[in-house]
Amino acid sequence: MFTLEGIMSISKNDLKEASKVLNKDNISHLIESLSLKDDNIRYQAFLLLQNRSLLFNDVYPYWDIFKGKLKSDNSYQRSIGLMLIAENVKWDTDNNIEDTIDEYLKLLNDEKPITIRQCIQSLGKIATSKPSLNDKIACELISIDLMLIKETMRKSILLDILNVLIIIREKHKTAEIESFILKALTGEILDKKSKKQIEILL
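The structure corresponding to this sequence follows.
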């Protein structure tokens, strides 16, 4: 029996192996656990589903549940939804992302900077699996007004944006992307070390 105690007893190092032996009922139980109020159980359920999604497509049928979480009042639920969509986009044979991407991109303006960061980082996975969305994703990333973001978070968010744009420009190089990268490398938000890291990636 896949109990809450059983879920919580799995150590961080064993999550990947544990995710490999999940069955349909286990997955359904974990999906339900994502809505529990206990942060520890929710997070453990999320990690098991995330690890499962790396290897198998049987979490993908719950796409609509993850999509629904994007509109949640709870930022934790929004984060769970966006990250599990990103993990399952490679299994998206029905092209559900087409009907989800606009809602997804709204989270680039989330009230929580951590959710914005998770959204940007996850867009890298979406861009890799769905190159047809590269132009749309790049345009949204480039249009983020960093000055509206808390000063302490600007550098991290700009680095997240640049990392995704570097993925996109491998298949979709535009003047707008090149201009944005150049501006970031000559601007004042990034320090010398960060600029060097980006230059190496380029």
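The first helix runs from residue 4 to 8.
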